[in-house]
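Aim 2 progress update. The chain analyzed this quarter is reproduced below.
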Amino acid sequence: MAGSTVLHLGFLLTLAGILLLACSSAQRVRVRRQNMKVRINATGDTIVLKFVRPNPDVKLEGYILGYGSSMFSKQFIQLPENGEPFETEIDAEPKYLVAVQPIPTNDVKKHCTGKVNLDKPLHLVIDSVTPTSVLLSWGTYLKTPYEGNIMNDCLEDGHYTIRYRERNRKWIYQTCPTSDTVIDNLKPNTPYEFGIRSNKDDRSGMWSKPVIHNTNMGDKNMQITYKPNRPIVKTLAGTHSSLFPLLPGSPAARLPIPAKKPNLVGKPGGIADKITGLSPDKASILKPKLPPVTAKPSKPKTTSSPTVTAPRFETWENSSVFSSVPASKVDAMGKERYIAPHVIYKTDKKPDEPCSITTSLSYFPEEEAGELNVTNPPRTPPSNLTVVTVEGCPSFIILDWEKTDNETTEYEVISTTKGPDGEQVSILTTNQTHTAVENLKPESSYEFKVKPKNELGEGPPSEPVTFNTESADPRVSENVSGKDAIWTQFPFKTDSYSECNGKQYVKRTWYRKFVGIQLCNSLRYKIYLSDSLNGKFYNIGDQTGHGEDHCQFVDSFLDGRTGTQLPSDQLPTRPGFYRAMRQEPVHFGQIGGNSHITYVAWYECGTPIPGKW
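Predicted structure tokens:
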């Protein structure tokens, strides 16, 4: 093939497909491999692959494309809708892998008991969302909203009746099929009494104990937040809130919210000209808002510029920002950082700057992978294995080593840690002499070693090196020790405007929306929102910036770093969610174009997804 390879993909199915099913607790279950056939038609520089489905019920969501001499670079690409053709162009490589994982249509089916428990009273937890609305969450045991796996909810099991009233007034009743809901149109700064009971068919359970909750004080000039009104769980980082927790108390409680100006597209008669003509109430919406005394201050926006990468030809070995000792010997929680001869620290990250794997890797140049005539397996181990870490970034490290022969074509990077469930091992494969190891746990001990390989076999591994990760920074997000990651891997449909093609994860928000994430890596990802798990996930627009405060949707306190920041009139018009300020509910409508609402292709928020392994 000359110059490039064009793959025309019709019905794409993997040669050895793995069906993915979701059952009971929504765990993936591997079933017997399906025998499939493929028809290949090669004409000139075009290869057409047509795969025969094993049965007509199989549905396809997307395909995995890998290419390169070691097939290390892999990405998931969603299939086009409505049977449209798809064509992609990539650089010519010696080897290619194309595989599709068929997924049954009813992928989110769960095992449900078919009944609710009518005998046990429900426990009710309430949070203020705005001065006129509250979030109710309940269950047969005490919980905080949206903890655990969202796939475990059984909507078929029955429904619930909610009642609420002002003190000593008539009850107002609502029904709800899920275990959480938002009640709105309440009066600000008013005590309300709430109760909940379960229902199945014509039978009803007992009412929960009454819960009295006072709505927030309404103030148009104050930033709207909500305060937790639930039992408190002590953590190192302070008190535990729900999806968007407030920053734990600190000496500098980091400050007014920085002024955010409406996005403009420079057209006469636009939003800038209209602001002065608005009534005081409407105009105040577009003015900067100050937080109440108890609110978490937003960070000054020092990280909204495009990603800073290493100057050309500057590597970590000759850069002044890398050192054998950290700039501070203790981390954000006062714990001593790990120092050893094989450990190098990147020392220039600011506390309010999100951690970035992409920026750190820019100091490690990629090597061209050439074809080797190997006659034996590798005979010498890699040498000088070094752990490169970034101060303030416990979730990843970069391993770097030296190649010691001309027979190695790829490496296995083996990471080991010991936890309550015994030894955990993770293995990565790369054809470079460096790689990032992601999703590490804070305050944990790891051992790393590298094994050389080629098509004839394996060589001896390097000498192992150890490293202890530092504490999680409470200024970035809340870390609850020992808690499982809140993200559930789940393939969803996107209204795509993204530079990320990796795995997809979802979780619920506190106002009945689903957050969808597609990874570039564990610290760079595209953020979407949707009203339903099986519906389309949409871009999120920003009326007063470029999505920096959207990091709130992934539980980050930081204003994030975002992708290429274009004015809205240079972006295609598309439907999407949008808002102007952190903590505000989102609206749905047109974004991009002449809407004065921008959107971006990726976010870096400092919060790793899916989290620890």
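The CA atoms of residues 157 and 366 lie 54 Å apart. The radius of gyration is 27 Å. These observations will guide the mutagenesis experiments scheduled for the next reporting period.
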